[in-house]
Design a protein that fits this description.
Helix content of chain A: under 10%
Order of helices and strands of chain B: EEEHEHEHEHHEEHEHHHHEEHEEHEHHH
Strand content of chain A: 35-45%
Oligomer: heterodimer
Distance between the termini of chain A: 46 Å
Strand order of the largest sheet of chain A: 1-2-5-8
Strand content of chain B: 15-25%
Helix content of chain B: 25-40%
Radius of gyration of chain A: 13 Å
Number of helices of chain B: 15
Shape of chain A: globular
Structural class of chain A: mainly beta
Number of helices of chain A: 0
Strand order of the largest sheet of chain B: 10-11-9-8-12-13-14
Largest sheet of chain A: 4 strands, antiparallel
Radius of gyration of chain B: 20 Å
């Protein structure tokens, strides 16, 4: 039996968590990051399956999930903010650039 | 030894089904193929939009996919239906199937020779009745799991696919490879951003170089089109489900392939004749991918999904695994296994992986999948040239 968390962090160096239950704005969420349990205040509504930042991410910084780069931040992202296509830009498959 | 109950063919290959397949060589023969199949219980049929107006490598690939399905060890016998004037002729497809499997029952029906579609259907019905009767005499025998080729696929993914269903399928993939079997990883587009991980598992430098080549040529195509891939990869549904980029999708996708070494990289629809993990170069398009893996000889497919999908191959049983419990419940008539228990903390990835492995042995032994019960026969051939 695994412990139940409302959001999952895949690798300890990830800077985003994926929610497995929709989260309302201004909700405190516990997360397992590596071996540690950390608490984060989620500021925005996060739909099921979407991500929020668990660390400060600056504009142009790498966004990391599964311990790997999944894109770059197009603006500063604060801890607890929604991370999705509005502030994450894919680095690959970009014929438009 | 892990065993299942399957059909041992005269050439030593194994089948997990004993289909009598009605196969049009050209789109113009679809209606007749369907007419034959709908008149004879115990047959199934394929429809497609190709077989004429094709040239060179593109025509060859379509023919290879059709022959691969007819020659598939899950198929007892096949009736190839042609119109009579097409590029990809039914007689040639039938002869090629016979060349690969001399023991197999192979017949042809040509609509122009038969004197119209009604006569062609009547001719096909008569042949199909006999073939179903002959097929019914085949008996299942105990066969080692090492003979199985598993195709892996994810479609309609959400952000949970990479957390629950795909890692669980990865555990099942490892179990099959450890038992001596074969697993196909495909969907080249959906490896962009994760190719370094797969290449790092290649058995030699040549195989690793091929991984990077495939991804490079895929990205070159996207650059030529001058588009941001988002909207197709990830798809609008993927994005709604939480996936933000192709890298995120790919890093979740490759979990399906477990952790064992990558033995080879092969072309679309090429025969899979090696053991262990193999990467087949296919598009991300679900049905084209499914069709390519089955043409290559995969016996059954495990298909993970987070948004929901109902498709299934006409030849290889297609087992659906839900990444979340809400989907398992809402599309229960289409989904076979729930991996959402990982998300809700009820089971570990390893436990669900073992359940998927057990399910695939059951399905290989004859238990129908939901897609089979509902009669799905999805089929789409990759095109590499224009229609002329």
């Amino acid at each position: 039996m695994m412990a139940k968390f409302r959001a999952i962090v895949m690798k300890a160096n990830d800077n985003v968590a994926t929610v497995v239950e929709p989260i309302a704005p201004n909700t405190g969420v516990d997360l397992k990051v590596g071996e540690e349990t950390v608490s984060i205040q989620v500021s925005e509504a996060i739909p099921f399956g979407h991500k929020f930042a668990i660390r400060e991410i600056g504009e142009g910084d790498r966004i990391v999930k599964y311990g790997e780069v999944i894109g770059l931040a197009t603006q500063n992202i604060k801890v607890g903010q929604h991370v999705h296509v509005h502030n994450l830009e894919s680095c690959r498959g970009r014929g438009d650039k | 030894m892990m065993k299942f109950q399957g059909y041992r063919r005269p050439d030593g290959k194994v089948g997990v089904r004993n289909h009598v397949l009605i196969l049009p060589s050209v789109t113009c023969a679809n209606r007749v193929a369907r007419g034959i199949s709908q008149s004879v219980i115990g047959t199934n049929w394929i429809e497609h939009q190709h077989g004429c107006g094709q040239l060179g490598a593109d025509a060859d690939l379509t023919a290879q996919v059709l022959v691969g399905h007819g020659a598939h060890p899950n198929v007892f016998g096949v009736i190839v239906v042609g119109l009579g004037c097409e590029t990809i002729r039914a007689q040639d497809i039938a002869a090629n199937i016979k060349k690969h499997c001399p023991y197999k029952a192979v017949e042809t029906v040509i609509i122009q020779d038969a004197g119209g579609s009604v006569n062609a259907i009547a001719q096909g019905v008569s042949l199909a009745k006999q073939m179903v009767n002959d097929a019914s005499l085949s008996k299942r025998v105990s066969i080692d799991a090492s003979d199985l080729i598993l195709g892996t696929e994810c479609g309609g993914s959400d952000a949970c696919s990479g957390i629950s269903a795909n890692p669980a399928l990865g555990v099942a993939s490892d179990l099959l490879i450890d038992a001596g079997g074969t697993v196909i990883l495909a969907e080249t587009t959906e490896i962009i951003g994760a190719e370094h991980i797969i290449a790092g598992r290649a058995v030699n430098a040549q195989v690793a170089a091929r991984c990077f080549e495939l991804i490079n040529s895929c990205e070159t195509e996207v650059r030529k089109m001058g588009v941001d891939m988002r909207g197709s990869q990830p798809s609008p549904g993927n994005i709604e489900g939480g996936l933000s980029s192709i890298e995120e999708k790919s890093l979740g996708c490759i979990h399906k392939a477990g952790t064992r070494p990558l033995q080879a990289v092969i072309d679309y629809a090429s025969p899979v004749n090696m053991k262990g993990l193999v990467w087949m170069d296919t598009p991300g398009h679900d049905i084209e991918q499914l069709t390519g893996m089955v043409a290559g000889g995969c016996h059954l497919v495990v298909f993970t999904t987070g948004r929901g999908t109902c498709c299934g191959s006409p030849v290889a049983p297609t087992i659906k695994v839900a990444s979340n419990t809400a989907l398992f419940e809402s599309m229960n008539d289409n989904i076979d296994v729930n991996a959402g228990t990982i998300i809700s903390g009820l089971e570990s990835v390893e436990q669900v992986g073992k359940r998927i492995f057990d399910e695939l042995l059951e399905v290989a032994s004859g238990n129908p999948t939901k897609a089979e019960i509902l009669g799905f026969n999805d089929f789409a051939i990759r095109r590499i040239g224009p229609t002329i």
